[in-house]
Amino acid sequence: MDNRSDIWRGIDTIKGRFIDLSDKVWGMPEVCYTEARSAAEHLAELRHQGFRITENVAGIPTALMGEWGEGGPVIAFMGEYDALPGLSQEAGVAEHRPIETGGHGHGCGHNLLGSAALLAATAVKDWLAENKVPGRVRYYGCPAEEGGAAKAFMVRSGAFEDADIAITWHPHSFWEVAVTPSLANTRADFIFTGRTSHAAASPHLGRSALDAVELMNVGVNYMREHMPSDARVHYALLDTGGIAPNVVQAHARVRYSIRARDLPGMNELVGRVNKIAQGAALMTETKVEMKIISAVSNILPNAPLEQALHRVMEELGPPHFDDTDKGFASQIRATLSDKDIASVYYAIGMDPTDRPLADFLVPLDAKRNPLVGSTDVGDVSWVVPTVQVHAPTVAIGTPFHTWQVVAQGKSPHAHKAMVQAAKAMAGLGIKALTEPELIKAAKADLTKRTTKTPYVCPLPDHVAPPLDMSVV
Ligand SMILES: Nc1ccc(C(=O)N[C@@H](CCC(=O)O)C(=O)O)cc1
């Protein structure tokens, strides 16, 4: 019954629809909670495949879930479909060529991510139907990974409560089990209010909110020396108070992303940044309000799932790239710096090679020096045993959030990698359905890691999904 080659052949039979879905979503890039069309495409495919649908998960209009099957364990596949602002780019070219100035683009490959996760869920559904065994497979369509923390809100709403394991993947330079940790991350806006006035005639009557933002940023930049070396703090100016230098700026808003290895470390840092904001308000006689936009937890690893996934990926092997794939990837590679390339090899503890695309499986015990970002997969990993595939959708060294990711997002090599990711995920799903001891071991591992430090949702109770966060 556990014949993974059957399910892999099944994926080859149906993959066309999902490659088309990925390309379609690539062509309608929608950011943070505005993914109406992309979510509708995913919903239409779930319906076509006969899944039972739940819309509006956690009260989020672009979050959805499809389920198929009865009884047995619940295998959850998680997909994403949000894009990034400012990364509009033509596909299939190795030069920076925006389609639309200032337009959005799939700079983190979530068009592929969502579609391959849905492909894996569909393949497991077909396998369940064929083998007539108890078991349920779910596809969670998760919006706003890029800063919106949708999965954290979905976890808070109980959407993952009865899932037995969760499987996902991410586009990457390499073919590997994702064993890298991620940072807990809070996004908070600091909104300063001052008093406007004529900047020349009555400057002494004005109190500048913009001055306060500048002083706050200076203060935080002094704090950097005194924070843990793996913490990260960065900011974006959302409102600088206006365009006229002769009008004292009465309002200003800065958005901070405050990251640390774990939640206690992050909360401490959020407190320190807030103190600096209060200090800036005191100095400038303005008022400040801190508004939490979203927050995510660090990822908890799961050793039994990682080992099982590694075996599946070994059995499956990396995608087979042909000379055309390697040719385009080499052109992209030529647009990267040696440092870009060296840094991804450094992350897996390997010396750089000349390969344009990854054709090997990174050992599970590679001496990694991980590049660390954040993801809302973290929150799921605290409540359900979770594991992730990395599949080589991009030329080795391509940094995330760049035009080069967008340019490769519809390429044959990206399609091959997304299909391979789906095969790895579905292969692990079948393994979990046929080997009950795997789910047991995965759950025991999670329990062990959370007994002393149980999951605490990083979102304050009063914070609702920031559905309008990208239109401030
Ligand atoms: N396998 C990956 C997972 C997440 C990301 C990423 O760039 N995430 C954003 C999202 C941050 C967040 O969720 O707060 C970031 O780190 O800035 C990149 C690769």
Please tell me about this protein's structure.
The chain is of the alpha/beta class. It is built from 13 helices and eleven strands. The strands form two sheets. The chain has a seven-stranded mixed sheet, sandwiched between helices. It has a four-stranded antiparallel sheet with strand order 8-9-7-10. α3 (110-131) packs parallel to α12 (412-434). The model has no long low-confidence stretch (mean pLDDT 97). The structure holds N-(4-aminobenzene-1-carbonyl)-L-glutamic acid. Residues 108, 145-147, 149, 170, 185, 296, 373-376, 400 line the site of N-(4-aminobenzene-1-carbonyl)-L-glutamic acid (8DM). Residues 108, 145-147, 149, 170, 185, 296, 373-376, 400 line the site of N-(4-aminobenzene-1-carbonyl)-L-glutamic acid.
Overall pLDDT score: 97
**Small-molecule components bound:** N-(4-aminobenzene-1-carbonyl)-L-glutamic acid
Using only C-alpha atoms, the radius of gyration works out to 23 Å
* Individual helix count: 13
Please summarize the sheet with the most strands: 7 strands, mixed
Poorly predicted regions are none
The first-to-last residue Cα distance is 53 Å
Tally of extended strands?
11
Backbone shape: globular
Structural class: alpha/beta
What features would you highlight for this structure?
single chain; 472 residues; alpha/beta; 7-stranded mixed beta sheet; 4-stranded antiparallel beta sheet; 17% strand; globular; binds N-(4-aminobenzene-1-carbonyl)-L-glutamic acid
